[in-house]
Amino acid sequence: MRAKMPWNEWLEDDVNLVALPVGHIGGVGWGIVGFFNGATCIVQREFVPPQVLDAIEHQRVSKMFLVPTALHFLLMQPRVRQIDYSSLRYILYGASPIALDLLREATEVFGCGFCQQYGMTETSGTVAYLPPEDHDSAGNRRMRSAGIPMPGVEIRVVDADTRRPLPADEVGEVETRSMANMVGYCNRAAATAETINAEGWLRTGDAGSLDEDGYLYIHDRFKDMIVSGAENIYPAEVENAVYGHPAVQEVAVIGVPDDKWGEAVKAIVVPKPGTVADPQDIIAFARTRIAGFKAPKSVDFVAALPRGPSGKILRRVLREPYWAGRARQVN
Hints:
The protein is of the alpha/beta class. It has helices spanning 25-36, 49-58, 68-75, 100-110, 189-195, 235-243, 279-287, 315-323; strands at residues 15-18, 40-43, 63-66, 90-94, 113-120, 125-130, 148-149, 154-158, 172-177, 202-210, 216-221, 226-228, 231-233, 248-258, 262-271, 298-301. The strands form 4 sheets. The chain has a 7-stranded mixed sheet. Strands 8-9-10-11 form a 4-stranded antiparallel sheet. Helix 3 packs across helix 4.
């Protein structure tokens, strides 16, 4: 059953849109897949939301790969609900966590098949996928997962210290093994040895868990994990809880120094235009969706979040002002 992947099949009349930087695996990798399968490929110099909508409308794009931030920017366009999306067969998305509310809105607006992709440059792209049939406009548990392994790919979750495999639903570091894993980093033998072991298992640096059905759940990057009062808190889970607030356009969650708890959860929010955003209201909203100790202790507002070329939020830039003058960014 898992080998049947209609989303990964190509038709003679497919039009493939490459709208991410080709210096990123999500751009160059997706472009190569389209060319390899003989699709008409439209390569845009950079991601510009109106240009993406124009390509869908006038060049009849049938497939594209986007990061969650790009999906969000498309949904913010004034005419996004006026476009004819009948040519779209599939939207593939990945490279960073996605808020469930955002994914539900995207499935409702674009009306095509959605397939999440999880992977990294070191794995030559996708190692796990969440198939379209696991997406539901009403939302479901599996929509919080990264999906199941691609054919020929092994995935396991191990204890970060002992490197022993963990049972279902326990959080550890995600490792993967396949023929598509990199041979190593160029002229960096030590870094290669730290990343790939003798059995070929590659350390992703991601904190995750596997359920009993083999679905992979990514909790966050280990380096982004917040440790507050000895509790591990993953920013992606908190962001997912905050995102649905009616005054929140975008949110990033970081850990900041706290004399009592070591680190405290802080939400950095871009308010929606025309709304009055109240920090305590946002915190109270989050507490209705996740455990109280995970909810933000404070909220700061900014005009925009710092991002890298692929659209990923630069958490280290957000953390810098709060950790300035300290020898390390852990408390």
